[in-house]
Amino acid sequence: MVDDMTDVELGSRSDLEALSRSGRGKVITLVVLLAVALGAAGWYFFLRKHGTGNPEDPAKVIFVGRTRGFSMVLDDVGFEAAEGTLEAWEQKAKEEVPDLEVTGVEAIMALADRFGYGYVIFEQPQEIDFSVLDIEEVPELPEHVRYAVLSAGDLAFPHVMTVNPKPSEVLSGSSVVVLQALFAQEKLAELLPDAESPSIESIQLRDRLRDAVDRLAQVPEAEKMAEKIVQGVRHQLEEEERAEPRPSLVGDALESGEPFPLANGQVLTVSRGFKVVTRDAVRADLDVDDRHRLWVGAPGAEPSSRKPCDALFSGEISVHESPRFHMAPDGAALLTQTLGQGMVLWTLGEGPGACPFVERGSVASPRPGLGEPVPAGHGQVAWAGIFGSQGVVHVVTAGSDDDAVTLGMIDGVELTSVAWLSERHLAAIGQGMGGSWLYLMDTQTPMTVLRLPATAFENAEGLQEVAAGKRGDQPVVVVTAGIMPRKAYRLVLPMGLEAMFASPPAAEASPEPPVDELGFGGGPDVSREERGLPAIVDLDSNRFEVTVLTHEGSARGPSVSADGRWAAVAMRGELYDPTDPDDSEIVVVSTDGGSPQVLTRNALKDHQPRLTPDGSHVVFQTRVEIPRTDWVVTSARVAKVGS
Question: Which domain holds residue 25?
Answer without folding.
Answer: 1-48
